[in-house]
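User
New here, help please:
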Amino acid sequence: MAVTGDETESAATGDIPACQLRSPTSGLAHSTVLAAAPGATHGPQSHHTEEVTRKREVRLMKNREAARECRRKKKEYVKCLENRVAVLENQNKTLIEELKALKDIYCHKGE
């Protein structure tokens, strides 16, 4: 693709550049208009860096909030597991005592 003098001139003025593309089979020229990204041809570079910085800060803030929520959920989950362990330990203790009592009753009947 060849760049013409008109294209470099329009890029310098901030206009949308028009490029000529040649088809490999026909050799005919086709005009195509390229749309530039917003802010790419207008405004200073500092605006772009400020936008990138702002987006990064927003992303980091969202990430911190998500991490905080994840830690909270994990803490709640562990607490529930600890409570469940306590309940199961009590049940196990009760069942062991009941088993001992039944064994005592069974052994004394056999005598």
Summary: The first strand starts at residue 18 and ends at 22. The radius of gyration is 38 Å. Residues 45-110 form the longest helix (66 residues).
